[in-house]
Design brief:
The protein is an alpha+beta fold. 27% of the residues lie in helices and 30% in strands. A hairpin with a 2-residue loop joins β8 and β9. The mean pLDDT is 94.
């Protein structure tokens, strides 16, 4: 793709984001590679930063081996998190803020130290994590009918939407992030379940992958950043005027409603 094509694709996604009008898959109009998909994402990241949005952290997507195989990739992807995406436990979200929302249950890590040096190790990631909370990620797509491939998703900020954070901070040594059980409940029924190991074998492994990748691309993780580490179970479609409750063993519960 040429720079003009990258800018044009980025503008199409940005306008879809602003108008809530979905567009056709980018792969229908462009020959996308991993590099230029991230270049499209980066154009919009920089535009939003220039417009005054505040970067609050990063998200990791495609952490399930089954999803990687389905999409034909051998690694996760990443997207940017902005402070205006955040909601607190128990808040109600207007569906007008979304286009095609779906839920994922995740572990969110808050960093107390920078991870900006080459050759980052797992020990450094563990040392950098200040605490974890349960989190609901509300993924979304600017591509019509969720008709996405991995390149469409990467270009579209890894299908980011919003996120809801729990209010119970827990130190890493106080819960089992590998074996913790996760469930999402709706109308008294469990609609998604899983465990920590579903996220790239261990959510901290996903965090390590992200830290290395962010240092490599020049947007290193810093103290104060939030990391949404990836889904622990299947995605849940969102319905209007409904409430969803996430429970993660050792991290407590998070609830969100949609109006």
């Amino acid at each position: 793709m040429t720079k003009d094509e990258i800018d044009k694709a980025a503008m199409a996604l940005r306008q879809a984001h602003e108008t809530n009008l979905a567009i056709s898959p980018l792969r229908d109009d462009y020959t996308l590679t991993m590099d230029n998909a991230y270049a499209i994402q980066d154009v919009n990241t920089q535009k939003w930063l220039n417009d005054g949005r505040i970067l609050s952290g990063r998200k990791i997507g495609v952490t399930s081996k089954a999803v990687q195989e389905m999409l034909g990739v051998d690694q996760p992807d990443y997207g940017m998190l902005f402070s205006d995406m955040a909601y607190a436990d128990g808040e109600t979200i207007s569906l007008s803020r979304t286009m095609q929302p779906r839920l994922e249950g995740e572990i969110a890590f808050f960093l107390g130290k920078d991870l900006d040096q080459p050759g980052i190790t797992m020990a450094e990631v563990i040392s950098a994590v200040e605490y974890a909370v349960a989190a609901i990620e509300i993924i979304d797509s600017r591509i019509a009918d969720w008709n996405i491939g991995i390149m469409d998703s990467i270009a579209d900020n890894a299908s980011s939407g919003l996120y809801v954070l729990g209010s119970r901070p827990v130190k890493l040594d106080a819960f089992d992030h590998h074996n913790c059980e996760m469930s999402i409940e709706h109308n008294g029924q469990i609609v998604s379940s899983g465990i920590g190991a579903a996220c790239l074998g261990n959510p901290l492994s996903a965090c390590l992958w992200l830290a290395k990748k962010m240092a490599e691309v020049g947007r290193p993780l810093k103290a104060g950043d939030l990391v949404l580490s990836g889904a622990l179970g299947p995605i849940v479609p969102v319905e209007a005027n409904q409430t969803y409750t996430l429970q993660i063993e050792g991290l407590g519960r998070v609830q969100v409603s949609f109006a």
